[in-house]
């Protein structure tokens, strides 16, 4: 069960994935696996100091620059959609009894912080499925997002 906190324009999510850390890292950084949980990598690579662009659907693209990269423990990058102010995402991975404890932080979101929680919970559900080798169909994304939003707002 994820733990969620929102404070001063930053969200933090703790998520447990019953897969080894190396597999979760692979899903986060491999272009083919990235498309199973975040979006299609349309430009660049995820590597130290690199720039990459992810299409989240319908050519709604996010441009990022990798700011920290410590395989298989930590990845940090900028996050910038054309219609939003730039922000920063950090992913930390720890091995725990054959599973992975993932900690996500998304900083500098300002008033957008609350609106990002349901999306990240949905993306992390897709990441978990990809890491377990049972990717979810892209067509289910918004349905799952809606369910998570309903559960959180009860």
From TrEMBL:
<protein>
    <submittedName>
        <fullName>Uncharacterized conserved protein YndB, AHSA1/START domain</fullName>
    </submittedName>
</protein>
<dbReference type="InterPro" id="IPR023393">
    <property type="entry name" value="START-like_dom_sf"/>
</dbReference>
<comment type="similarity">
    <text>Belongs to the AHA1 family.</text>
</comment>
<dbReference type="Pfam" id="PF08327">
    <property type="entry name" value="AHSA1"/>
</dbReference>
<feature type="domain" description="Activator of Hsp90 ATPase homologue 1/2-like C-terminal">
    <location>
        <begin position="18"/>
        <end position="129"/>
    </location>
</feature>
<dbReference type="InterPro" id="IPR013538">
    <property type="entry name" value="ASHA1/2-like_C"/>
</dbReference>
């Amino acid at each position: 069960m994820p733990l969620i906190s929102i404070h001063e324009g930053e969200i933090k999510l703790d998520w447990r994935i019953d897969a080894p850390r190396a597999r979760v890292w692979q899903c986060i950084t491999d272009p083919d696996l990235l498309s199973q949980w975040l979006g299609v990598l349309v430009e660049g690579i995820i590597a130290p100091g690199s720039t990459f662009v992810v299409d989240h659907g319908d050519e709604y693209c996010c441009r990022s620059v990798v700011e920290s990269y410590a395989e298989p423990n930590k990845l940090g990058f900028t996050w910038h959609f054309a219609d939003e102010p730039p922000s920063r995402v950090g992913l930390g991975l720890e091995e725990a009894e054959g599973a992975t404890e993932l900690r996500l932080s998304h900083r500098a979101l300002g008033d957008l912080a609350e609106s990002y929680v349901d999306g990240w919970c949905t993306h992390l559900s897709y990441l978990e499925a990809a890491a377990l080798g049972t990717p979810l169909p892209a067509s289910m994304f918004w349905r799952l997002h809606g369910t998570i939003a309903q559960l959180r707002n009860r």
